[in-house]
Specification:
single chain, mainly alpha, 23 helices, 0% strand, globular
């Protein structure tokens, strides 16, 4: 496996001087200015990552109040929890083209503005349709930022991709868990209305706009390197000859694995707090349990990728995460309140299939262009596959009157997730498969 990583590491090392030269030639000439700009990029990355999930997990913590306030049925609430992967699939595809046209920093800045606007409007715009539209606006900003953050990390920190990705992943997990944990207490402190509990997260998104403004204005220091990078990554002349990603079984396995883990993650973010509340757990505790599930991604986002790169086959990690998920679903069915903390921990471990999927994307392709193609294919296809899951949970919950059938569906989906994850974890590359 380490051998399969060597070409990518060599490629990064060889290209980094060119990246630095393009950055330095465009940036203001003094080292102090360049250092200040780099620090600003770090702040922007961290603040952006903090804002990539609160729009979802804050809603999950107050889903019952939002349903009652807007008169939503269970099916419509399920549709609401399906909106994030839909937006990620639809709008994420636009991100590379927008970055080539305006620069990645400018698009991320616009994404933070969209998140701020959507989160500020959705509690007060009135009606279910308006709530969905404002949520979609915020999720559009999340989608394009989600795709472009790794591009910015790679262009600005070519020799520190691992550490910066770890920092980015930690901030994302912290934002996810913080929104789940404090939304209900904040709602009470602000007067008890669900609107105030949701709108407060627009302030965090507004803060994330600020570091990108000088980077966008200093086009030579920030945007131009980003402009060049996506264009080069997406240019046909840089793509390996004959690479048709759809011919690779590993690419399809990874796309399905990505979609099934995303299905489990968005069902958890959208519905787990409600499962606990229906079992008699207090609203604040249910939000804290969801936060515990999400915060497991903070340490494991560092551990799992590093462990994965040391193994020739990532199948054992896939199986371990899947078994944790199956145990968590069984616990939610048999004793949701009595063992609530244990089930939250187990599902938190299981949901760390996300950093594993991202790691395997980089390991299953030999060239930079191959990684870009595989990432786009796996994520867009995966998010499309994940759309029906949360909606089906809402429909099953409404028509069965309980959580037995939805939990059975979640457990059933974990079986193929383990199977395709084992296939995706084999030590091979999509270039070899596509050529063959």
């Amino acid at each position: 496996m380490m051998g399969s990583m060597a070409p990518e590491e060599t490629r990064t090392t060889m290209t980094s001087p060119a990246i630095h030269r393009s950055t330095e030639s465009a940036a203001p000439g003094t080292p102090a200015t360049r250092a200040w700009t780099t620090r600003l990029v770090v702040v922007g990355i961290v603040l952006t990552a903090l804002n990539l999930r609160p729009a979802i997990t804050s809603l999950g913590a107050l889903l019952e109040e939002v349903r009652d306030g807007l008169g939503m049925s269970g099916s419509v609430a399920g549709l609401l929890t399906s909106v994030p992967p839909l937006c990620f699939a639809v709008f994420g595809v636009m991100a590379p083209r927008l970055a080539r046209r305006f620069g990645a920093a400018a698009v991320v800045c616009a994404g933070m503005v969209a998140i701020t606007t959507g989160l500020a409007l959705r509690p007060y715009i009135g009606g279910t349709a308006g709530f969905l539209a404002a949520s979609a606006l915020a999720l559009m900003g999340i989608a394009v930022s989600n795709v472009l953050m790794p591009v910015i990390v790679k262009r600005w920190f070519p020799d520190r991709v691992g550490s910066m990705t770890g920092l980015y992943s930690m901030a994302l997990a912290l934002g996810t868990s913080a929104a789940a944990a404090v939304t209900v207490p904040l709602t009470g402190a602000l007067g008890g209305g669900w609107q105030s509990g949701l709108v407060v997260w627009a302030g965090l998104a507004a803060a994330a706009v600020l570091p990108w403004i000088p980077l966008v204005r200093a086009r030579g220091a920030a945007s131009r390197p980003d402009d060049r990078a996506p264009a080069a990554a997406g240019s046909t002349r840089h793509e390996p000859d004959g690479l048709r990603i759809t011919r690779s079984r590993t690419a399809w396995a990874l796309a399905v694995f990505f979609g099934l883990q995303a299905t489990a993650a968005y069902i958890t973010m959208g519905w787990m707090a409600q499962i606990f509340r229906d079992a008699g757990v207090a609203a604040g505790t249910a939000g804290l349990l969801l936060a515990v599930t999400m915060v497991m991604g903070v340490p494991l986002a560092f551990v799992i990728p590093r462990l994965a790169t040391r193994l020739p086959h990532q199948g054992p990690i896939v199986v371990a995460l899947g078994v944790c998920g199956l145990a968590g679903y069984a616990g939610l069915y048999l004793a949701p309140a009595a063992g609530a903390w244990a089930w939250a921990l187990l599902l938190g471990v299981s949901n760390c299939a996300f950093p594993l999927a991202l790691t395997m994307v980089g390991m299953r392709a030999r060239t930079g262009a191959g990684v870009a193609k595989l990432s786009a294919f796996a994520q867009s296809t995966g998010y499309l596959l994940s759309i029906p899951g949360p909606l089906l949970v809402g429909v099953l919950y409404q028509h069965s009157g309980g959580w037995g059938l939805p939990l059975a569906m979640m457990a059933a989906l974990m079986i193929p997730q383990i199977g395709v994850g084992i296939l995706a974890g084999r030590d091979r590359t999509v270039e070899d498969e596509a050529a063959g």
